[in-house]
Amino acid sequence: MISRFTRRQIVAFLIVSILGVGVMAGQYIRLPQQLGWGRYELGVELPGSGGLYPKAAVTYRGQEVGTVRSLSLRDGGVVAYLSIDDDVTIPRKVSVEVRSASAIGEQYVDFVPSRGADATAAWGEGDIVPAERATVPVTTANLLESVNATLQSVPQDSLRTTVDEAGTAFSGRGDDLGRLLDSGMELQAAAGDDLAATTGLLESLQQVLGTQKQVEGQIRSYAGDLDKVSGTLAEHDKELSGVITHGAPAAQQVDALARDLRLPLPQLLTDLSLTAPVLKTYLPGIRHLLIVLPGAIEAHYSNGPADRLDDELPEANLSFKTGVNSPPVCTTGFADAGKHRSPKDTSPAPLRDGYCKVPHDDQRVVRGARNNPCPNDPNRYSATAAGCGLVFQRRAEPVAGEGAASYDPESGQLLAPSGDFFLVDDLAAGLVPASWQELLTQLAGAP
What is the value of pTM for the model shown? Predict the structure, then answer.
């Protein structure tokens, strides 16, 4: 009769045996997976087996998620049926790659998710991933054929020359090569320390390269135009050399012109800055004058008969009509009405504010200055800009003792703080003008 202690030992042994068999069946033999429990089947179309075999591993994001159950032939390729864990969701935006785990083979299937892959759109039971999403490694036969073709295409004599020259180049350079390798290792270590920054740079580089791809046409066009310009410059090398050789005298002339314009040009620009707003405001009237004036000049020349223009006393066809006070004469607004200036008086006459100053509806001098339409308001008439409500900047009057004057001893020109030019002959280097520009400056710059 079996004792109680022995029975307890047998029961404990049975329990340990059952647990051991269960662990072995679940963890090592993977009996539930072999029976298809907790798995779903997914097919992958491949252009070739790529050395893949049943029981090969299936990975997703570097983690093993299943195995290859079987492979079957199909028109134009192979279908690999995979057994995937139920708790693994593989999105549809993935690429399937058959890779080698080592140099001797050991292929496996790797699912590589694409950027922006959505887990809600996933592959399910019985789905087949199309062949356009799958790639297989190059077979050994194709690799050897490509290597052999490459070797056959290399000229033997050139290869010998290259090997000889390489031997000459690296002969006695062991220490230099060692330092180069050491520096390369240091550079690699530094790059590893800054891996995050390097990765960010590469990701940003994708955007930059994408932008360059978008403007590929413009870049190619620019490169082509630059090539044409370079070719044209090469064809005209002699002419360009002549320009560079003889360019110094031309540059000296330009420099002399700049020195001659150093004083009058600022004054001219200052005056233009004052007159430009006036011209801009009265531009419609100026445009109308330029349109009408040629016709008026042509009508003036038409007064004389064409066959009498070369005579010593040419004729003119005129028609005079006498009239008394029709329209009436206007003297209102003229301060010196009835007073005439002597013809012998050749001094500059002051500008007078003289025009017919009567109401607009008066019949006297209806085409006078008082009925000039304002450029800013066609319904308004005035003889002056102030009457039209226009105010223009005037040239500032010189103020005694304010600022400093600039004097050019070569030309004798004095630039006052007000911007006016004065010619001081007794301080100049010479009274005889050295050029026509200096002559005109002296004639126009006298106060």
Answer: 0.34
